[in-house]
């Protein structure tokens, strides 16, 4: 069961990254909230290095693959992200802001590592930033007033990719803290999925002409 849940999480999150790259390029925007992207990239880079210090491991390889995928998503943010901001945000200001956000992502990961140690820091940081990401996806939908730069595939894969380790660490390994965070993630993720499904139904609904409306 442990291996199955780990594989589900790994595959689901890989789908999230690949789809985020595809959607970002398609819509000429970035498909992951930037604060969550910064924390994700810092987490993967930090713990990939940690894994390889003791030799090559499956998790280390996965972390490297995810970090490289994040680099592609970061490129979409750097390429298209300034257009999402007010006009007074100049290129230098955008560059400074981006450096602050991504630098802060690494600082947060290293603070978790220093305070909790590797075993707990990897899990606590992952679930807390996951909860942040869940909320920020909804905020992204609201800010863009629709699903531009978003995808139901990302939403569902993100939910499953978080649900699997919630069951593994929260239920099987009996961690109430992680279980609680995982449940909150699911609440936000399912809300986001509901918003995207509603948007899809609205887009698919037939547009009635004036005559049909009068007939109703």
TrEMBL record:
The chain crosses the membrane at residues 60-80, 92-112, 124-142, 151-172, 178-197. Pfam families: Pyr4-TMTC. One of its GO terms (cellular component) is membrane. One of its GO terms (molecular function) is lyase activity. Its main location: membrane. It is found in: Membrane. It is a multi-pass membrane protein. Keywords: Membrane, Transmembrane, Transmembrane helix. This is Uncharacterized protein.
